[in-house]
Design goal:
globular; O-Glucosyltr/Glycosyltrsf_90; Rossmann fold; 6-stranded parallel beta sheet; Glycosyl transferase CAP10 domain-containing protein; 12% strand; alpha/beta; 13 helices; CAP10
Length: 490
């Protein structure tokens, strides 16, 4: 058993339990009169403000700030509830955004920012670094393309026969996602020339899937820029246990909101174990033994369902694999990064389950929305202390009443203690799990609308600071994407 100390005051705004509030006192008559007068004044000015607002134009009256707070009060088409604007906290089922909005691919940028607050943070932060030069990467470098008059052209890219099938799939899916966002844009995207890296490892100046979370690992090159783009799996991922994002999301929703786990008591019906499947050799250079250590740490533990995948001879499927939605049957889901990021992360975040992971080292385009509870802040044995790099990467830590993910020791040494603590605090555990799903699914951050919104903001952001003059690329016409897609670089 683990000795428990009172929960620390993680947040200045920490609320007292109802039982700890002081007893109510009777109000004096003049206090009541004063209170009624205040209410009447508030109602008057609210009506006045509403009247003025309805007569105003549709454009925002103030600049939207990409922060995790209530940032927009401007009426928008299909505007979400005010509670929705506190990004990172999640959306109760009764206030979820409607499907008609989440599938709307034609939202303006103002509507996008109001509907999905905080979504564009990575873009805005990179644009704020200032102008950079776009250089010709040549036929053996990353793909380069052009956007002109709202249309997509391919300037040059690697030949299909020089790439693995996985690389071809990644490149194809990503370009289709970008192309769809351009076709459905309600206003023209700025003309530009861009560089797109579809490999796992980010480098140079390009659109890429991830970047290091630790700022000290960023390139010292003043011209280097990493613009994060949505993972290719938002279009499709031809793995037998994943498939398209829409298929997986529908399957997870049926599971989480159906008779098995939906409604009261659904959390208690989930399997009280931490689950993981993966390959032990597929690890980062910075954490080479992380996956193997996980399997070793959890071996024969009653609280764990952890197995290395047993692949068939062709490496296309695993005998002990789980469909991505079946991970959501467990209360606790273990997340491991790969060589860099893990494309599975956005699927696990759709579960109403607690994601357990070492501090994330590679940030994807929505990773900044996670609210980590560090297990080192709990009264557990053994206890670990986050390194300075981890503290720089994740300077803000949350309490169990606010968090939507749990960061455990990088060597998994406290994983069992964390699971035990969560089991002993089922209400807090369920809250962490619920806030994750309410944010990323209920808030629509993984929706087709959010993806299209992000792509358009990404390309406009790139165009705003990219300098192409003198690169030689400005004179290249390129191949229309529709034609290029028929051969895919052959």
């Amino acid at each position: 058993m683990y000795k428990e100390k009172p929960l620390p005051l993680f947040s200045p705004a920490r609320r007292l339990p109802h039982s700890q509030h002081p007893p109510r006192r009777r109000l004096h008559l003049r206090h009541i009169t004063f209170l009624l007068a205040c209410i009447l004044c508030i109602c008057y000015f609210t009506l006045l403000s509403s009247s003025s607002s309805s007569a105003s134009s549709r454009s925002p009256s103030h600049t939207h700030s990409e922060t995790q707070s209530d940032t927009s009060t401007t009426p928008q088409k299909q505007q979400p509830s005010k509670a929705r604007h506190d990004a990172g906290k999640g959306v109760p089922p009764s206030k979820r955004l409607p499907a008609s909005l989440l599938n709307n691919l034609t939202l303006t940028e103002e509507e996008c920012r109001a509907t999905f607050p905080g979504l564009m943070k990575e873009i805005d932060d990179t644009v704020a670094l200032g102008p950079f030069d776009v250089k010709d990467t040549g036929e053996f470098g990353p793909l380069q393309g052009r956007i002109k008059d709202g249309k997509l052209y391919i300037l040059h890219t690697q030949r299909r026969k020089d790439l693995s099938q996985e690389m071809v799939n990644s490149r194809t899916a990503t370009l289709h996602s970008l192309h769809r966002a351009l076709l459905t844009s309600p206003s023209p995207i700025k003309d530009t020339i861009f560089t797109l890296n579809f490999l796992d490892q980010p480098f140079g100046t390009c659109l890429t899937y991830s970047r290091p979370a630790d700022p000290s690992l960023h390139s010292p090159d003043p011209n280097a820029r990493l613009f994060l783009m949505p993972h290719f799996s938002f279009w499709a991922w031809p793995l037998p246990f994943i498939g398209s994002m829409s298929r997986a999301m529908e399957a997870i929703t049926r599971l989480e909101e159906g008779p098995e786990f939906g409604g009261e008591g659904g959390w208690q019906r989930k399997v009280s174990k931490a689950v993981w499947r993966g390959t032990t050799w597929f690890s980062s250079v910075t954490s080479p033994g992380m996956r193997a250590k996980l399997v070793q740490t959890t071996k024969d533990k009653p609280w764990a369902d952890v197995e290395a995948l047993d692949w068939d001879g062709k490496g296309k499927s695993a005998r002990n694999g789980l469909k991505i939605e079946d991970f959501c049957r467990y209360k606790y889901v273990i997340h491991t990064e790969g060589v860099t990021y893990s494309g599975r992360f956005q699927y696990l975040q759709q579960c109403a389950s607690v994601v357990l992971t070492p501090p994330i080292q590679w940030v994807q385009h929505t990773t900044h929305l996670v609210r980590p509870l560090f297990s080192s802040d709990l009264n557990l044995t053994p206890r670990w202390e986050p390194s300075e790099r981890v503290k720089k990467a994740w300077p803000v830590r949350y309490g169990p009443e606010e968090a939507n993910i749990v960061f455990v020791a990088p060597d998994w040494s406290d994983l069992g203690a964390v699971v035990e603590w969560l089991e002993q605090h089922p209400d807090l555990a369920e809250g962490i799990a619920r806030r994750q799903r309410e944010l990323f699914v209920g808030g629509g951050y993984f929706s087709p609308a959010a993806e299209a919104c992000y792509w358009r903001a990404l390309m406009n952001g790139w165009a705003k600071v990219a300098r192409v003059e003198g690169s030689g690329l400005e004179d290249m016409e390129g191949t229309p994407f529709e034609l290029w897609a028929m051969t895919n670089g052959e």
